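Amino acids appear as letters; backbone shape is given numerically. Here is one record.
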Amino acid sequence: METLRRRPPLPYETAMNKPIADHHPYALDLAAFRDLGRRTVDLAADCLEQLDSRPAVNVVPDDERRLLMGIALPDEGMQAHDMLAFLEQHVMPWPLPASHRRSYGWICSPSAPIAILADTIATTMNTGLDGYDHASLFLMQGLGRWFMELAGFPVDGNSLAVLFSGGSAANLNALTTALHSAARADGWNIREEGLQGSGRPPFTVYASEEVHSSVQKCCEQLGLGRRSLRIVPADDRFRLRPDALRALVESDRAAGMRPFCVVGVAGTTNVGAIDPLDAMADIAGEYGLWFHVDGAYGALGILDPAYADQYRGMERADTLTLDPHKWLHTPVDCGALLMRDRNAHREAFSLVPDYLSESGPDSAPWPSEHMFQLTYANRALKTWAAIGRLGRNGVVELVTRCNRLAAYLADRVERSPDLEMLAPCSLSVVNFRYVPTDEGMDDAALDALNRHISDAVAASGEAHMPTTKVRGRTALRACVLHYANTEEDMDHLVDLVRRLGREAVGR
């Protein structure tokens, strides 16, 4: 019989026949881990220590961009100390400006040092916050109660707080649940039937012209389309007009539409405006609308006695968005949604695979049964640490001080002959522009000038303050959120803008 010819072994077979390595690169060497950990903490501490001495805006050089985007996958694993050295040299020198003391452009606060360390513990434990039975899930329940108590939201056996990546995801959850609840009230199941070819009245959502852009994205993601979002005019304080809301709901109902949700804003991103939430809650109740409040930035403003009255009605919301990574110095990312009726969200989202068991009567509710995501990061520890380090009194002091510093900045602007407020100061947001005296510039020229000043502020390295639009006019927008800010920072900002403005017009 002819001898069978053996084929050469395939690469994977050769690899499998090799002896198993005695030491895998991931294998735990506690002595080496402690050494690397100490070096990592030193790098982090150096970063925090040097942050405010560096330029507020530090753009990544072209050669570093090319290096990072073109980095090749090594054939052999890198040494851990070399990897830390790479991060130190090529990544850490160029963070976003948001953590700098004189960065005023974005509504993201710097990370509380204790929260950075707590997040390291969460990463080490590697337990997601989706469900099952582990300590972080129970801590999340206590943390959720903290949110509700701080924001004046009802705390009872049916309320629940769930953490998300930010306000956009929280808003999407709220509107998804609102849509499901509206369909259920009308006698049908949107999860079963969907929106395709239903032949039912078009759904409509209502919000101020100052509402966050994520609400439009939510309408698009839900398959409702941007035309389903009815934009309600705002008053001269940039607050939704209840009379216009009522008229629009009535008009849409008469035209055969199905209004199902109204979105109030507790502190708009652009100007800090607080909608008339109590009046909006009245209208929502009268017409059977879900009342969602987006307080991602400003919900905690309720803790400032100077603003507390403007928040009447927020406690009547069906859902409330609140972002700890904005005012509470929690490392990004972290948003929260406060739910009045957890069962409504469970009906809209719960889908338990066979390989998972539902939570029992003595367990904490599984967040994954009240949201779209299953496995997601444990954001509870860092958030608990950021809030716990301050306590209630510390949070009140932080919010109140930021608002008072913004009021101080607004006063400086109003007393400067070449600066002009473009919106009333509200919460910790100030919108203004440079207007050279006796130049006779129109709005288009002033827009260009203030864009130039914003670029010059960044180029100086002394501060960071991008522009925005306020009723079509370019504004220099400052949001005060840093725990270390003082009146000296506000004085510096005014003096810097005025100096750069004078230089720009040749004075």
Q: What stands out?
A: The chain has a mean pLDDT of 91. The first strand starts at residue 160 and ends at 164. The chain has three domains: 29-103, 128-377, 392-504. Residues 405 and 488 are 10 Å apart (CA to CA).
